[in-house]
Amino acid sequence: MNPIKIKKALEDFLLEDIGDRDLSATIFPSLQHSKAVIRVKESGVISGLSLLSYGYELLDPQVKVVLGKQDGDWVEPGDLIAEITGPTNVLLSGERVLLNLLQRMSGIATLTNLCVSALAGSATRITDTRKTTPGLRVFEKYAVRCGGGYNHRNGLYDAVMLKDNHIAAAGSILEAVKSVREQVGHMTAIEVEVESKEQLLEAIDARPNVIMLDNQTPDTVRDWVQFVPDFIQTEASGGITIDGLYAYGQTGVDYISLGMLTHSVKSLDISLNLSISKKEVEV
Length: 283
What we know:
Elements: H1 3-18, E1 33-40, E2 44-45, H2 50-59, E3 64-67, E4 74-75, E5 80-87, H3 88-118, E6 125-127, H4 137-146, E7 160-162, H5 164-170, H6 173-181, E8 190-194, H7 197-206, E9 210-214, H8 218-225, E10 233-237, H9 242-249, E11 255-257, H10 260-263, E12 270-276, E13 279-282
Parallel strand pairs: 6-11, 7-8, 8-9, 9-10, 10-11
Antiparallel strand pairs: 1-5, 1-12, 2-4, 3-5, 12-13
């Protein structure tokens, strides 16, 4: 993750939560220090640990973070993933924002890992989509990588995807690809979405970099990829569930893009506890 982007985003997130000051933390004198421990409460893949250091550094450089795990590690209930020491009021002020991010990113990494595991033995890769939470895309796409998946385009600016509305407005797939090629540089990849065999054959004639087979069954995908020349990559997307991944992985398609990795994920249960007199007290 780009540290400049991360720190800027964390500043905004912390300001949203803390505002002018953390009223609850005013009961602690600035000289009082504590240790906090972060543990996972369910199995999964951890992601976002660097945010602890970045976030607490913004609040107070005195805070020290020692990690017990690394991003991408599989964790079990009770595993210690970080110890944090510093002013008590600072530890508590940053806890919610940083834990929220850590939990969501770890949930995404865990779901991605399950999807990748469902394709065991297949050369097909799992990728994310642009169906991310506004403001969190850099975090969520990083979490996908931690889970063993790959990133699709990051936004509208780094690759071309011509979907049904683009094609309808342009008049045809051939015209849409021709027009966009006149506007972008030779280093920009072009992907075309198709929904019928007729569109597939037209897309092949247009010679894009990638053809997306949208909302098709595994049997249809298996049939269609045979028509696509090797210099064009293939992607399956739309309505694909974890239970159906294995079947799609046997079709020969190069990629499967899954919006659910970021828009339908359950956060991993993680807690931060203050360690007081050798006892951990959840806050």
